[in-house]
Amino acid sequence: MTRVPNDRGGEAWDDFIDSLDRAGQAGAAGDITVPTQLPTGLAGKRFGDLTRADVRVLARTGSQFGRRGDTVEVLWEDMQRRASGRHRLTRRKK
User: Fold this and answer.
1) CB 46 within 8 A of CB 56
2) Are the C-beta atoms of residues 38 and 61 closer than 8 Å to each other?
3) Taking a C-beta distance cutoff of 8 angstroms, is the pair 42, 34 a contact?
4) In angstroms, how far is the first alpha carbon of the chain from the final one?
5) Which of 88, 27, 39, 33 is nearest to 63 (CA)?
6) Domain map of the chain by residue range?
7) Residue 87: CB atoms within 10 Å
8) CA-to-CA distance for 56 and 34, rounded, in angstroms?
9) Residues 6 or more apart in contact with residue 15 via CB below 8 angstroms
């Protein structure tokens, strides 16, 4: 795997993840757009419009910047669970 230099793209990645996290806490992560500084071909797409394959591309990009790429996958899966109403954990009876 080729490493991308940790320059503006790395900062854009960090800002993107921070924005997703804040918006996700407010229930609006789907409205965040993919930054144009990321070399993914997904620039300008809404996070809520991404497919699982798109999210994997983003995760690999984050890893290339030396970041934990799986963070974006977890945020996307949480957003999908919330949208389908499966975001609440069921309690086990003791």
Assistant:
1) no
2) yes
3) yes
4) 47
5) 39
6) 8-84
7) 12
8) 13
9) 35
Which tokens is 2 given? 């080729």
For the record, the structure tokens of 46 come out as 């809404």
User: What is the Cα–Cα distance from 18 to 24, expressed in whole angstroms?
Assistant: 10
CB 33 within 8 A of CB 46: yes
Are 35 and 12 in contact, with CB atoms under 8 Å apart?
yes
Question: Both tokens of residue 27?
Answer: 């229930």
Rounded distance between C-alpha atoms, residue 29 and residue 26, angstroms: 8
pLDDT digits (tens, 9 = 90+) for 33-88: 999 888 888 999 999 999 999 999 999 999 988 888 889 999 899 888 887 775 55
The tokens for 67 are 């970041």
pLDDT (tens digit, 9 = 90+) per residue, 10-39? 888 999 999 999 998 888 888 999 998 888
